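Known limitations

C-alpha cells in this collection are predictions and should be treated as such. Users comparing against experimental data should check residue numbering before alignment. To illustrate the layout, the record for Enoyl-[acyl-carrier-protein] reductase [NADH] is reproduced below. The input appears on top and the generated C-alpha cells appear beneath it.
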Amino acid sequence: MIDLKGKVAVVFGLANKRSIAWAIAQKLNEAGARVAICYQSERLAREAEALLPELNDAKAFQCDVSVDAEIDNVFEQLKATYGKLDIIVHSVAFAPADAIKNDFLETKREDFRVALDVSAYSLIAVARGAAPLMTDGGSILTLTYYGSTKVFPNYNAMGVAKAALEATVRYLAASLGSKKIRVNAISAGPIKTLAARGIGDFNKILNAVEERAPLHRNVETVEVGNAAIFLASDLASGITGEVTFVDCGYNVTGL
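Generated C-alpha cells:
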C-alpha cells in the first residue's frame, strides 16, 4: 500500500463528489496525506464544505485560478496553515460553450484565450505559487484528455487547450526538475463529470470506448485516483514530464 503519511496535498478544481478531483482527494487522504481542497467560487463553497467531513483533517480554500491575486492569496493561506507542500493536483479546465459546441473554424479569439488561460496557463501560475513551498521536492499532477492529440466531436477548442497543457507539463518538468519537483499528467478516459455535460453527444464517446477499448469498459474515477497516488508517491520518483493514460487502453486502438 502507498504511504503518504506526513505529506500535504492540495487539490485544485473540486466541483462535486462526482469530479475526478474528489476521487483523487479521497485516495490521497486514504494514503495518509493531509488534504486541502480548493474550489473556484462561492457558488461551489457549499459543495466543498459538505465533503470535508468525509476526509481526515482536511480544509477547504477558495481560489479562482484565472485570477493571480487569488492564487497568491491561497498560497499565503496554505503556507500559514501547513508550512510546506508536497503534492499539487491541478484538475482545472474550462472553455466557453461556443468554443466547444460550434464548428472549430468559428472559434472566437476571446473564447480561445479563455480556454487556454484557464485550462493551460493556470498550471504555470499554480506551479509558480507552489514551488517555493515544496522545499523537499514533490509532485505536481494535472488532468488531460486524448482529445489533445486526436479529434473528438464537440471537443474543439478544449482539445487545443489540452495539447497546450501537455506541452506545459513537459516544460515545467524541465524547469522544476532541479528543485526535485516532478510534473506529470494523467489522461483519463471519458467520465460523466460536471465538465463532461458541456460536450455534445458525450454518450457516443462512452459507447465507443466500451466497444473498442481493450478492457471493453469505461474507466472509473477511483482508478484515476489510484494512478494519482502512485505518481504522487516516491514509487514514481523517476517519472516526470509524462502523460499517463488511464483509459482502459482506448488510446492504443485503431479501429
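For this record: The chain has a mean pLDDT of 94. Helices lie at 20-30, 45-51, 68-82, 97-101, 109-130, 157-176, 202-212, 221-232. Please report discrepancies through the issue tracker.
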